[in-house]
């Protein structure tokens, strides 16, 4: 009984310490964010978007992302693009999504570059443009963005917007597969 009680007491103590540390960390993040720290603003926005340590609140997430984005934080700019693209807590707005993705992409944000490529490939808020899609996918893929590598492989495998080229398809699909992209692995098996 003594060992179990000790183990249970230790677990409860560790849980209390973890909760206290999380609350303290949240308060420190809020203080930094309120003082204009863009990284803290972005962190706080993510916490609100995911409901980590705070109640999930898209309006708060968007507000904090906007503060960080105004300071040029590419992660916040990308996340605002995602919010507008998905309509998370707001009405979908592809024009605003594209604008935020472009700002982040200009700073080299690979996820934003991929997202722009996807918008052009699927004609979301823009005229479908395979050349633009390919260009954005290549920028993201060259930085190791697995989804962009998969997309390029798919374009070459199916001849979408490019001349069908199974050798190029294989190159990009192998890169994506090596990063764990299950769809790329499956496509490689069926590449003909």
How would you portray this structure in words?
By secondary structure, the chain is mainly alpha-helical. The chain folds into two domains: 35-107, Tetratricopeptide repeat domain (Serine Threonine Protein Phosphatase 5, Tetratricopeptide repeat); 117-192, Alpha Horseshoe (Serine Threonine Protein Phosphatase 5, Tetratricopeptide repeat), CATH 1.25.40. Helices cover 74% and strands 0% of the residues. Residues 9-24 have low confidence and may be disordered.
| Estimated share of beta-strand residues | under 5%
Structural class: mainly alpha
Gross morphology: elongated
Predict the CATH topology of the largest domain: Serine Threonine Protein Phosphatase 5, Tetratricopeptide repeat
Question: Spans with pLDDT under 50 lasting ≥5 residues?
Answer: 9-24
Order of helices and strands: HHHHHHHHHH
Query: Percent helix among the residues?
Result: over 70%
- Which value, in Å, is the CA radius of gyration? 22 Å
Number of E-type strands: 0
Instruction: Give the full name of the CATH homologous superfamily of the largest domain.
Output: Tetratricopeptide repeat domain
CATH architecture of the largest domain: Alpha Horseshoe
How does the major sheet shape up?
Answer: none
What is the C-level CATH assignment of the largest domain?
Mainly Alpha
Count of domains = 2
- Discrete helix count: 10
CA-to-CA gap between the ends? 66 Å
Rounded mean pLDDT score: 89
């Amino acid at each position: 009984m003594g060992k179990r009680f000790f183990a249970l007491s230790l677990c409860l103590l560790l849980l209390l310490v973890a909760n206290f540390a999380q609350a303290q960390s949240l308060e420190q993040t809020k203080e930094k964010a309120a003082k204009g720290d863009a990284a803290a603003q972005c962190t706080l926005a993510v916490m609100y978007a995911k409901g980590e340590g705070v109640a999930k609140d898209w309006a708060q997430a968007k507000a904090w992302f906007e503060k960080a984005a105004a300071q040029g934080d590419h992660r916040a700019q990308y996340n605002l693009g995602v919010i507008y693209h998905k309509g998370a807590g707001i009405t979908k707005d592809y024009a605003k999504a594209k604008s935020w993705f472009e700002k982040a992409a200009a700073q080299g944000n690979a996820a934003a570059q991929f997202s722009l490529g996807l918008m052009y490939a699927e004609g979301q808020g823009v005229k479908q443009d395979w050349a633009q899609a390919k260009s954005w996918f290549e920028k993201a893929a060259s930085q190791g963005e697995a989804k962009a590598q998969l997309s390029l492989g798919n374009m070459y495998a199916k001849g979408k917007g490019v001349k069908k080229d199974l050798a190029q398809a294989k190159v990009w699909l192998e890169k994506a597969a090596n990063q764990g992209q299950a769809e790329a692995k499956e496509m490689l098996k069926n590449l003909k």
